Give the backbone structure.
Amino acid sequence: MLSYYHLETLLPRLFAFLIAMTLHDAAHAGVAWLLGDRTAQESKRLSLNPLAHLDALGLAMIIFGPYGWSKKMPIEAFHFKKRPRLSNTLVYLAGPFTNMLLALFFWWLYFFLPALVGETAESMTVEQWRVYLQYCVIVNLMIFIIHMLPLYPLDGWYILKGLVPARKQGWFGRNQLYALILVIVLMITPTGQWALEHIYPLAAQFVMNIFSL
């Protein structure tokens, strides 16, 4: 696995993060728009422009550490007229699902790039781009894994909330603060880094197995 935190990895990490973050948020906004909620569109978040989604602190964190985030996505569930709980769940599932697809796409592109560009391309240029592609796989897998955790305010929290019966919805309100504290602990302590270092190889092996089918 590539070294993730060194200064020389900054450009490929930023490149990968901007792609992953922008398409993650655009997927949220796009699915919300399709299902009847125009809030994200009216907030200029239905966009492929990274500047529409950037959060200053979140960007700083991706520069100096393993984590980063974008601005909170404005979703108003009461705008979903048909099956609002299901619609809300699909909106929050759209982001991580997009990152999983991106990880698969960039992994495919990593292996087939030499064949796509042809023999005339300089081998050094191809290898440089493959470094960027490898980080695109790493970052998208990390975002997918992190956002599927059932912890507030990650997407997994809202996905799980949409799947449980209505009579158990109160549990999420009572435990939201504790889930947020746990997320903060994972972000500011070595525990989160240790977890990702162990989870990422398993996820990467999973992707490799898909391509070997």
